[in-house]
Amino acid sequence: MTNFFSMLKSILGIGLTDPTANIQPLEAFQRLNGVHPPQLLDVRSPEEYRQGRIAGSRVIPLVDLGRRLREVDKNKSLLLYCHSGNRSGMALRLDRK
Fold this sequence. Notes:
39% helix; alpha/beta; globular; 5 helices
């Protein structure tokens, strides 16, 4: 499990000054429309994803992230999102417990 978190931190750290920081919607929009846009990863459930999503995102539910991490491009920065910020924050903080 520690290897998973090390990989996640490594992926999130590429191109970001503080990968655990919350960003405002305008900054997310600017990053997504920049020269080197991050991967946009929705960590909600597939049902929530079907109800509405940000264009260009892909869904990997938080509960599946550990076993599906290899699907994330390690050479690109990553922007996580969910409904309220709780699950995307948990994806970053799981190893701090």
